[in-house]
Amino acid sequence: MKAYFMNPVLNKELKLRFRSGKTFVGILFYLLALTLLMVALMYVLRTSSPSGFFKPQESRLMFMFLAFFQLGLVLFITPGLTGGVISSERERQTLSILLTTTQSSFTIVIGKLLSSISYLVLLILASLPIYSFVFLFGGISPTQLAQVFFFSLFTMLVIGSFGVLFSTLIRKTIVSMVTTYSVALFIVAGTAVISLILFQIADIYAVATPKKVPSVYFSAMFNPGIVLADVFEPTVSEQIKEITGIKFPIWAAHLITYCIVIVLSLTISVRNLRANMKKGS
């Protein structure tokens, strides 16, 4: 197992990525921006409070804001990091050299995926002390803190698997990145719009002929924003149960569905990596 996840491809990519000082300068500016954002939110919430104190409810609100900010960061940066990991090698005409090594297609794909998202993983882990500072004011539990970070890492892996898939299937890096960004946009905005439309239709028809609408559940379970909201507001899942009649937790359906997507995406990438070489790189 260690040979698969700590292979020469991953080692080389990590050394190249973290050798430059620009990497750590980027982390510094990200943490500074996140700290300034947190301080600004604390100031606004404290000054708008009648008592003039920072309450646990306001700490929870600020934590929710930071959690969704981090989710947006993952959805915005991951496609750019993973959308060209294979196609860029093909354009530089170095993919054929990489495939002549003793490394299997699986280790190459996994190495490229993990190395491409490693920088974003480091950003998220580096921001943990800032989230812990918010945690000290109360209003959130350690379980919610762990859930938010696990969910961010899982979403990163989902989008990253799409990026590797399109980078393997599509020969042009620009086209691959645009496709990956389009899928990420659909997962967030597209499924949200579809869920909202289905919810409104169900709400309209419920007045005349009350009935369950399962389609709302199957569109909402693909949306990471809805699932993240369920972490903070259990009423979200209760409303979905009431509308759809499906009692299975939406977060569990989200995890199971995207775990299958990750496995399928990586499997297709592995199978097509050398198949594309036969056509010429």
Automatic annotation (TrEMBL):
User: What transmembrane ranges does the database entry give?
Assistant: 21-45, 65-86, 119-140, 146-166, 178-202, 250-270
Q: Does the keyword rRNA-binding apply?
A: no
- Going by the entry's taxonomy, the superkingdom of the source organism is recorded as Bacteria
What are the record keywords, sorted?
Membrane, Transmembrane, Transmembrane helix
Q: What is this protein called?
A: ABC transporter permease
What organism is recorded for this protein? Niallia alba
**What broad taxonomic lineage does this protein's source fall under?**
Bacteria, Bacillati, Bacillota, Bacilli, Bacillales
